[in-house]
Amino acid sequence: MKQVLFVLSFIFFNSLIAQPDSLFIKDKRVKEIRPEWKQVNKLSVDLNEVTFVNWNSGGSNSLSALFGCQFAANYSDKYFRWDNKLTTAYGLNGQQGRETRKTADLIEFSSNLGYKPEVKGKWLYSARLNFKTQFADGFKYPNISKPISTFMAPGYLFFGGGMEYGQHIKELSMYFSPLTLKTTFVLDEDLANVGAFGVDEAVYDSEGNIIRKGDSSRSEVGILFTNTYELDIAKNVTAKNLLSLYSDYINNFGNVDLDWRVNFDFKVNDYIRATLESHLKYDDDVKTSIPTEIKGEFDEAGAKIQWKQFLGIGFAVDF
Question: How many folded domains does the chain comprise?
């Protein structure tokens, strides 16, 4: 009898070692990634106001306002991601004794479709589209008789394919595209005729008559790299870095167009927050000008670094 019990015990313990999952219940279920759409909508208003009454140091009363909207609709499943975002912004500044001036103007739509061959993969094969323009005329103040930009002058369209790293990391994204089409639109005839924003200018005869109108668009093919990184610096303080580098293969390859934004978001509560933004740009097709000795006439001064800084306190509502 003892021998029989010994044999049965030996078989039992060997079965535990050889097939433990058959005798012990283990929860090895992996969370299922189901197809879903997520929407994020945000409205914001930032205000800056200064008022003087009998102020012995002098000064002018002023009021600035920046209105912004963001709409996002994102889809994801095991293998695909499709992120869509529309951003609009418009800012005005009113100062005593001076006309109202525009301080910000943006319409931007972006769409990113990515395919991940493996569920736990870190790289996505991506196709990206980005479009930018503005709402209203822009001027070289104080001259408000002749706009230097307007709706769809310029308008920028980027479309290309590449690879993206970082979708498994919520705060990080790096995208590289070896083949990206960039099209610049200048649909204002006056601006197109002077060759604004890099399009071919109009051709004139000896009497100043237009033989051929300026082009309304210009296309380039180049290489694009973008980087997005978000960091929580402290409680309710977030920094976000957005970098874009583009170089055209055909026209002066190696000359890089730069678009770099750094945003700091200081959250007071669910509705009130402060924003500090730095925006640095360089585009070789955007030429600057300097005044000549003749009043009202300018000479071209080439492309230069553009920089804008914004600090505001305002209200934001997510819905």
Answer: 1
CA distance 234 to 217: 45
Question: Measuring CA to CA, which residue among 230, 103, 100 is closest to residue 174?
Answer: 230
Alpha carbon distance 106, 259 (integer Å): 14
Give the angle subtended at the CA of 229 by the CAs of 177 and 161, to the nearest 5°.
15
d(CA 46, CA 63): 11
Name the residue among 315, 318, 319, 255 with its Cα closest to residue 284: 255
Q: For residue 155, what are the domain limits?
A: 36-318
27 in a domain, yes or no? no
Q: What is the CATH number of the domain that holds 59?
A: 2.40.230
Q: What tokens does 312 get?
A: 């505001």
pLDDT tens for the 319 residues of the chain, in order: 444 444 444 444 454 444 444 444 444 454 566 788 999 999 999 998 888 887 887 788 999 999 999 999 999 998 999 999 999 999 999 998 889 999 999 999 999 999 999 888 889 999 999 999 999 999 988 889 899 999 999 999 999 999 999 766 678 899 999 999 999 999 999 999 999 999 999 999 988 899 999 999 999 999 999 999 999 999 999 999 999 999 999 888 889 999 999 999 999 998 999 999 999 999 988 887 777 666 656 667 778 999 999 888 999 998 8
Q: How many residues does the chain have?
A: 319
> Do 285 and 255 touch, CB atoms closer than 8 A?
no
